[in-house]
Amino acid sequence: MRRMRFLIAILVLWLFLFYNVERLSKPIDITDVAYTFVPLVAAFSVLVPRLHKVPLWALLVVSTVVFLALKTWVKSGVWGMSLPLTVMEVCAIAVTIALAHGVGNGVNEFENAVAHITIGQVDRLPEPFSTGQAEMYRELKRARHYQRPLALMAIGIEEESIQVALDRMVREAQQAMMERYVLSDVARALCEELEDYNIIARKNNHFLVLLPEVTSEELADLTDRLHEAVSGQVGVALQIGTASFPKDAVTFDSLVEKAMGEVNGKLTPESALQHRWLATERHTL
Q: pLDDT-based confidence at 116, cuts 50/70/90?
């Protein structure tokens, strides 16, 4: 936003200077064609979204050709004694297009960021934790009943890496909008990498992923794959904590506590050992 405001301010000051240049230097006599053409190209560069995808050099070339053609058509001097004035007018048009093109790109980036945040691009959204908790608990009961393996991951995002991943416009937006922007991309990447029968729920700024039929030995390969996939697609680094049933814990709350503890760095080696001991005792009982 700061950059766009700066470009708008520079564009306004430049147009003010252009329309008052004759007062500053009496020998300069800008033609009516230039006076009309400069604001038109500025307006088109900002208002027409398709022009934002056109390279800047192409806009400059086309605008220069059109301007020279208009000057020739109205029989305004182009060559000879009028050549220095024509060069100055072409340079003025180039500066105007460059500034207006930057403003247009900034507006386009802002619109895309707002659309991404408010609408999102995730086909398979993680459920809120309050909703997904019941399904996760049922899966844990099934694993306990049939003595099948099960794992739980708690996934967070390193705050420092968010700044690297976001584009220029979103970086300067509010922190809440920035986090929501990145979380939506991470959610999409997780949904693409995980199987349909894996349960994903969002808890505040974390994701809880329940992985039926995944043993503790398979967790390492899966976490490495998620690290690589999210880093490649979104550009952020994940913090992943894991807990396995029945190796680490036998209750749902204990699984969540251990996984979240690893993500937040609150699980000490002694706490991890206690989790392991409690899980063994409960499993024995």
A: low
